[in-house]
Amino acid sequence: MKVIISSDKTSGSKKGFAIFKNSIANGSKVIGLATGSTPVTLYQEWTESNLDNSNLISINLDEYVGLTPDNDQSYHYFMQKNLFAKKPFKHSYIPDGIKAIKDPEGTAADYNKIIAENPIDIQLLGLGQNGHIAFNEPGTPFDSVTHEVQLTENTIKANSRFFNNIDEVPKSAICMGIANIMSAKEIVIMAFGDNKAEAVQKMVEGPVTEEVPASILQKHENVTLIVDQAAASKLSTNYND
Ligand SMILES: O=P(O)(O)OC[C@H]1O[C@](O)(CO)[C@@H](O)[C@@H]1O
């Protein structure tokens, strides 16, 4: 894993965006995208750039079960607001959180088919405080594919900051599995802030274990981790930018 330590989130996000721009210039066509607060600055860079997405396909990691695309907490809405409105892709895939209410297995199977038909060239990831990637919580099998995830109390609490109150946070999501994520040819994972420091340390330096889903990234041959000083503060090795 290549580790880039940036002075702050803005410079880290610029470096992250540069990796995507370069990868697209070199022929990447299928782009895996993430939500959460981590990628917002990277998406700002993207919308302000001259990059043209009209020949690209995007595939998002996850969506809450039960939220319509026009719900301002849905990941459909998030992507529209932060990237797609200004930089539309040829086609953008996000799991169908409404179909998933009645048919989570069918929704997940549809999404696995989409990923199989559109192998991901480069995938963006954030990192949960407990080491989760997308909504794959500790204990998720490394060979998992798209599935319905029951959100843990920790994640519901962490994400409640975006909702009016904690009871509005959906209890489950449709989420790419760890095997889907690992199938991407290249991965960029970003983490900023001291609340991510422990997860970063375990992901990079700890054992590869399903208890820390992101630790599997140690086994991927083309991963770049971008962190700020705070998120890097528990790493024991000195990684130079
Ligand atoms: O970027 P944030 O908001 O810190 O969230 C970290 C991770 O948690 C999630 O929001 C899921 O809870 C992921 O989508 C994200 O990668």
From TrEMBL:
Transmembrane segments: none annotated. GO terms for cellular component: cytoplasm. Residues 25-223 form the Glucosamine/galactosamine-6-phosphate isomerase domain. Pathway: Amino-sugar metabolism; N-acetylneuraminate degradation; D-fructose 6-phosphate from N-acetylneuraminate: step 5/5. InterPro entries: Glc/Gal-6P_isomerase, Glucosamine6P_isomerase, Glucosamine6P_isomerase_CS, NagB/RpiA_transferase-like. Pfam families: Glucosamine_iso (PF01182). Keywords: Carbohydrate metabolism, Hydrolase. Its EC number is 3.5.99.6. PANTHER family: GLUCOSAMINE-6-PHOSPHATE ISOMERASE. Belongs to the glucosamine/galactosamine-6-phosphate isomerase family. NagB subfamily. This is Glucosamine-6-phosphate deaminase.
